[in-house]
Amino acid sequence: MKIAYILNTYPQPSHSFIRREVQALERQGHMIHRIAMRRSGAPLVDPGDQAEQGRTTYVLEAGALKLTAALLRSIIRAPGSVISALRMAWRLGAASQVGRLRHLIYLTEAAYVAEYAAQHQIAHLHAHFGTNATTVAMLAEALGAPGYSFTTHGPEEFDAPESLSLGEKVDRARFAVAISSFGRSQLSRWAAFGSWERLKVVHCGIEPARFADPTPLPEGPLRLAAIGRFVEQKGQMVLIEAMAQLVADYPDLHLALIGDGDMRPDLEAAIDRHGLGNHVTLTGWLSEAEVRGELARAQTLVMPSFAEGLPMVVMEAMASARPVIATYIAGTPELVLPGETGWLVPAGDPGVLAQAIRDLAATPHAERVAMGQAGRARVLQRHDSDVEAAKLAQHVQAALPRDTD
């Protein structure tokens, strides 16, 4: 099948799961066209992301004249469809936080995407995230492009479902994907009951071969790793507060904070205020190989998030045979089993998080190893990228009109 992936910003350092899904589909013989609205502003340190950038068509780089020309050609070719799409864009914009003007821009982007789809004989559009990329895909379909589906991740989509017209996006889609059962339940809140049968669960995946021989769980001083964008919802500030409660009792304790973002100055200030300079390292963005190296040196991954979908970093840590300390939110309990593969704690409480780290420290090494191995078996069984991509392809195939099978 020829499938166009519709994305807002691609590739991004924190969205390697999309790249893995795309490449898994290509390994299975499908032709995937990557269409993003814009390039990432973040530095791409991973060679895989750098290669993906070279394979991606960037809509806004076509320029305003070409986008407007695509819309004018749509008017000439199918004026009724354009009027219908214009009304949709106007209505969606009225409900949206970003307004009508932005949705008129989305309409011109959709015209460009629809024209691209016709030129390349695309059979299906698939968007990631239920935000503007799915809006563009929905408007493109209204202009005559093939039908669309989309994957929601959370938490952003579930924070503003009405502004994003999430229910309408589900109702008009050939099908909609959530990455966890929790995510599917959230889509069910906004979609018409008749759409529920088209709500699918397709997990984000890892490539098991990249975790074929994980480094044995180290002994010695306790070393923690946390991975994610430096933004409020990731909860790194709570983890710093927990570290401040622990270092007196564990003077060799060390935390690697892997990632970057707008909160870096705040985190640096908190580290300095608590005198944690020798206990916390901010690594910046790392390549996938470098992240695996940090996990190899760690005894656990800590994920202190306030809001998530189903975190890839948890999957990668479990595939590396590391027990996980995570917050009891969203889809995480579908993966992390307390007492079996790690610990789950309420979000936002540094004292409880610190206690979980104390519990880890008190757990005999052999038990930590067993927890890591149980987590590894669980994630490899549930989150193989080839298996999950095949599920997505089956859903696409089943949704295609009969004359395009």
TrEMBL record:
<keyword id="KW-0808">Transferase</keyword>
<dbReference type="Pfam" id="PF13692">
    <property type="entry name" value="Glyco_trans_1_4"/>
</dbReference>
<dbReference type="InterPro" id="IPR050194">
    <property type="entry name" value="Glycosyltransferase_grp1"/>
</dbReference>
<dbReference type="GO" id="GO:0016740">
    <property type="term" value="F:transferase activity"/>
</dbReference>
<protein>
    <submittedName>
        <fullName>Glycosyl transferase</fullName>
    </submittedName>
</protein>
